[in-house]
Write a structure and sequence with these properties.
The chain is mainly alpha-helical. It has one domain: Arc Repressor Mutant, subunit A, CATH 1.10.10. The chain is about 60% helix and about 0% strand. The protein has 4 helices and no strands.
Length: about 70
């Protein structure tokens, strides 16, 4: 039986792939230049990308699937 996902992992899975990947690479300790290669971005684009990814993760953590408003008909 697999353990339940942490709220952080659930939030990471809801992020667009580039943001999720950037955060996962940073968490794994991957060097900045290697991260840029994986993400196919310029080195100057990495800090703002990570800043935006952190903001999106924070927002995703505040809005769990159970608390998301239901779609209006």
């Amino acid at each position: 039986m697999t353990p339940p996902l942490t709220p952080r992992e659930q939030a990471l899975r809801r992020l667009p792939h580039p943001y999720s990947l950037a955060l996962r690479l940073r968490d794994a300790g991957v060097a900045d230049d290697q991260m840029c290669t994986y993400l196919d971005i310029d080195t100057h684009a990495l800090p703002p990308l990570l800043e935006l990814a952190d903001a999106k993760l924070t927002a995703a953590l505040r809005t769990t699937p159970e608390t998301e408003p239901e779609a209006q008909p």
